[in-house]
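Dear colleague,

As promised, here are the two records you asked about, laid out in our usual form so they can be pasted straight into your sheet.

NAME FIELD: protein one
SEQUENCE, THEN STRUCTURE:
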Amino acid sequence: MISNVIEEIAGNRTFLITTHENPDGDAVGSSLALANYLKRQGKEVTGRVKR
């Protein structure tokens, strides 16, 4: 399963990160961590929070 995630990250340049409605701290924190990781890998990241 992790190999599928690694393949998707390696095979794409841009990513959209979203959360569920009324995100809690876990959702916000994990989204920010993923965005940070992707940016460090040279990826383009856009984020959206549904309110």
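NAME FIELD: protein two
SEQUENCE, THEN STRUCTURE:
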Amino acid sequence: MTDHHRKFLIFSLSGSLYALDLEQVAEVGDLQPMWPIPFAPACYSGALSFHGNIVAVINLATFLSIPGGNNPGKVIVLHQEIASLAFLVDSVVRIISEEEVSLSKPPDKSFAVVMLRTPDGEAIQLDLDALVLEAEIGMQKK
């Protein structure tokens, strides 16, 4: 897939919109039973089995220090090549193509890459590489 045909997964956290490059996402699903991860940071909600692979689950609102993010309804599972990781989010809004958005400078927030202006409102695209690296560092500190 070329950049010209890039798509984004738009999701919500505490009333704000965020985005991930769709190529980084393996699957979106409903909440599933999870097992606790001993000694993990508070943002880790547990682990789940995803097609036979164990995946750590992060409450993304807690990880990003977004207040009021205690109402997750969906799980976004990343591609295994990126990390054995999934994010709890409030809801998934839609998948949108790059042609349907305009890009602008991101806000001065952690992990923000670019601001996407969509028909649903402004969405912050997250820097997934930096986010995964910070999650790994957080686990190593514990």
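A couple of things worth noting about protein two: The longest helix spans residues 128-141. Residues 3-141 form a domain with the OB fold (Dihydrolipoamide Acetyltransferase, E2P) fold (CATH 2.40.50.180).

Best,
R.
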